[in-house]
Amino acid sequence: MKTRPLVGPVALAAAVALAATACGGPGDPKASGSSGPEKVTVWIMKDSVTDAFLDRFRTGFEAEHEDIDLDIQIQEWDGIGEKITAALASKDAPDVIEVGNTQVAQYAASGGVRDLGDKTAELNGADWLPGLAEPGKVDGRQYGIPWYAANRVVIYHKELFSRAGVTSPPKTQAEWLAVTAKLNRGSTQGIYLPGQNWYTLAGFVWEEGGDLAVQDGTAWKGALDTPQALAGMGFYGRLQALGKGPKDSDEAKPPQAEVFARGDVAQIIAVPGGAKIVEEINPSLKGKLGFFPVPGKTAAEPGAVFTGGSDLIVPEAATHPEAAYEVVKALAGEKWQTDMARTMSYVPNRTSLAHVIQDDPGTAAMAAGAARGRATPNSPQWAAVEATNPIKQYMTAVLTGTDPAEAAATASRSITKTLGS
Fold first, then answer.
1. What's the pLDDT tens digit per position in 109-125?
2. Nearest alpha-carbon partner for 313 in 82, 144, 112, 91
3. Beta 38-45 vs 96-100: how paired, if at all?
4. What is the CA radius of gyration of the chain?
5. Which of 247, 245, 221, 192 shows the shortest CA–CA distance to 408?
6. Which residues contact 118 (CB under 8 A, 6 or more apart)?
7. CA distance 399 to 81
8. Which of 159, 175, 226, 335 has a CA that sits 20 to 30 A from residue 204's CA?
């Protein structure tokens, strides 16, 4: 996941963010082969975590590992793909790199990422969130170690629910449609759902048992034209019609937080941090917003959702691979997962740790959904699909009257062509 909507800016001291794009070279007194602690370089993405968290982690980790000094360097998202690819191909790569969970396959394809599959048992891999663990695993090898997750929930206006006689959030898709129809009266929109919110569509498709693309042998092909995927789009269309969301744009045009802040929209689908943005725009809504997981087909469990977040990788060219693993193990372990989840309102990387954020209603709703989280198709070429995004075009076509099967077939052919390039 590229954007980090739940957090504020991160600005480490200049000494920490020194511009080197790799770890210490031969002249470094702490480089491999010299006396003193090993200097382990860690790349963390801007706005992922606060500097206070990183300070606590560095102090605590170094106290427990007197033979390791951490050099934590903050990286900008802009241009990071090219920078990481170059580092992985070099002989002087950083030791640990934070990457978006959906980017692991792209980097693994270069051959420069270390397989940590033999460490999964020690890291409680059986308990990892699927939306982080699955994209970190490519061709049976675990290159990415789950770090943290975030996913969409339903943010709702409590007073509008109360006025409509809705006493509790819906737990199934059928109830959700019925409640939203009841809310969609007069000047109130039952839900504001733009026509091109394709991450939300992905969840509906997965809930039906479909996918955006599937692997056929060694090749990938688009799968929006399957009955399951079409059923997911059908549900999206019924829900989207219960509001005035534009059919030809996404949640950024116009910003859905601004629309919700007007006070006449009952629901939006967003990460929980979106509520804070809404309250900043319209302070009168403070205390009036609630959260619930995206409903599933049955009340037994929430609906499937797209999970964004980050994994940690160790380059093959890492100067200190064993020390790098110790850093990964610590960041992915219970102590620092708990600290980070409470500090950042993130979902921890393990389902059994969801209880640590139960006092935060938004994050608790997010964690409930994360247990059924998924990621985009694990193809190294998926980023190219998102660049042109035929899924958005498909959604608009269906919502404006094009035959769904015809539009899905067109989009699937486009996805297949891109994934095969």
1. 989 999 999 999 999 99
2. 144
3. parallel
4. 22
5. 221
6. none
7. 34
8. 159
Tokens matching residue 11:
């600005």
Encode pLDDT of 357-391 as tens digits: 999 999 999 999 999 999 999 999 999 999 999 99
pTM, two decimal places: 0.86
**Pairing relation of β-strands 38-45 and 68-75?**
parallel
Beta bridge partners of 155: 268, 291
Between the two ends of the chain, the Cα-to-Cα distance in Å is 23
Residue 110 confidence (pLDDT)? 86
Q: Kindly state the tokens that stand for 193.
A: 């759902």
Mean pLDDT of the chain: 91
Q: What is the 3-state secondary structure (H, E, C) of the chain?
A: CCCCCCCCCCCCCCCCCCCCCCCCCCCCCCCCCCCCCEEEEEEEECCCCCHHHHHHHHHHHHHHCCCEEEEEEEECCCCHHHHHHHHHHCCCECCEEEEEHHHHHHHHCCCCECCCHHHCCCCCHHHECHHHHHHHEECCEECCEEEEEEECEEEEEHHHHHHCCCCCCCCEHHHHHHHHHHHCCCCCECCCCCCCCHHHHHHHHHHCCCCCEEEECCEEEECCCCHHHHHHHHHHHHHHCCCCCCCCCCCECCEHHHHHCCCCECEEEECCCHHHHHHHHCHHHCCCEEEECCCECCCCCCCCEEEEEEEEECECCECCHHHHHHHHHHHCCHHHHHHHHHHHCCEECEHHHHHHHCCCHHHHHHHHHHCCEECCCCCCCHHHHHHHCHHHHHHHHHHCCCCHHHHHHHHHHHHHHHHCC
Rounded Cα distance, 118 and 123, in Å:
10
For 48-74, b/e burial (b = at least 16 CB within 10 A) is bbbbebbeebbeebeeebeebbbbbbb
Strand 373-374 and strand 305-313: the pairing is parallel
pLDDT in tens, 29-80: 344 445 679 999 999 999 999 999 999 999 999 999 999 999 999 999 999 9
Cβ atoms of 135 and 101 closer than 8 Å: yes
